[in-house]
Amino acid sequence: MSAVLATLAADLAAAVTHFSARLSFETDVSDVHADLSAGDASIVVVDSRSVESWLQGHIEGALHLPTAEIAARAPAVVSREVTVVTYCWGPGCNGATRAALEFAKLGYRVKEMIGGFEYWAREGFPVVTGSGVERRPADPLTAPVHAVACGC
Asked: How far apart are CA 23 and CA 29, in angstroms?
């Protein structure tokens, strides 16, 4: 018997509902990069990590707003007209989820950037450090080496 099918796949209506819902809560680093590169003003990217983490490296154009400061600072620095995209370290960290929850509690439209800073850097997108803006080579296990996007 198939290990994959030991639990049957969801019926079609449930699958459409589930995957549509996931996409309404999440975005990925490639789509965020595309929007930032295009100067899309309908999103604001928020780095929810500590000051030390921010200084180690962050996404160019991101706003630094640690999770513990969101409730107090967000209304003054983030427009309610945009969709907030939160990120933290990576897939092993739920900091972006906690930050997204804080924004949602305040009434903001919000999405979490899956993959976080780790996958942003691994896909070769620009990273701001104390030395300036850096671009690392794309990791061939996470992104195409000779293309702008994965095409998925």
From this structure: 13
The β-bridge relationship of strands 127-129 and 132-134 is: antiparallel
Cα dist from 130 to 5, 12, 57, 58, whole Å: 50, 49, 8, 10
Predicted confidence (pLDDT) per residue in 64-94, tens digit: 999 999 999 999 999 999 999 999 999 999 9
Grouping H, G, I as helix, E, B as strand and the rest as coil, residue 86 is strand
Give the whole-angstrom CA distance, residue 69 versus residue 58. 18
pTM of the predicted protein model = 0.92
For residue 45, give the nearest of 76, 84, 18 by alpha carbon: 84
Q: How confident is the model at residue 152 (pLDDT cuts 50, 70, 90)?
A: confident
